Amino acid sequence: MATAPPPPSDTAHLDAQELRAWRGLLRTYARLTKALDAELEAAHGLPLSSYEVLMLIADAEGGQMRMHDIASSILLSRSGLTRLVDRLERDGLLCRKSCSSDARGAFACLTPKGRDVLDAARAAHLAGVRAKFLDHFSPAEQEQLGGFWERVAST
Fold it and tell me: Are 48 and 36 within 8 A, CB to CB?
């Protein structure tokens, strides 16, 4: 594992290399999420943020997830998540169920319709992720990228 370079002497600015790395991440993330969102919305009427919430719940133990756990797993504010879950519930894609161990807590659960929508959207989303991101890297580079993201996320 490479050691971190010493901190730059000018902490008020990023140098060209640092700026390229940082802005590249931001631009790439914005472009990928915009393109994947547009594809899902056009093909399945499902925004990327809704897909991500449905996937989290589907992958959770028992097919249900506490609201605060969803909030800590996605890039939405608590109020944004509440609005999104309200919309998904209104659309019949998920339901809320009270938590027997915590009267204040609630679980979000997929409905059969939610499972069907998710299953239909999954293949298109995964194809988009592969075509727009993963196919640009060899398996070894993907492994390396995964390590980079884990290193940053653990700080």
Answer: yes
Q: Read off the pLDDT of residues 69-102 as tens digits, 9 standing for 90 and up.
A: 888 888 777 788 889 999 999 999 999 988 777 6
- The CATH number for 112's domain is 1.10.10.10
Given a cut of 60, whether residue 8 has pLDDT beyond it is no
Task: Report how far residue 81's alpha carbon sits from residue 42's, in angstroms, rounded to the nearest whole number.
Answer: 22
**Domain membership flag for residue 66:** yes
**Rounded alpha-carbon distances, angstroms, from residue 99 to 105, 107, 108, 142:** 6, 6, 10, 39
Q: Which two tokens stand for residue 101?
A: 């161990």
Say if residues 106 and 5 touch (Cβ distance below 8 Å): no
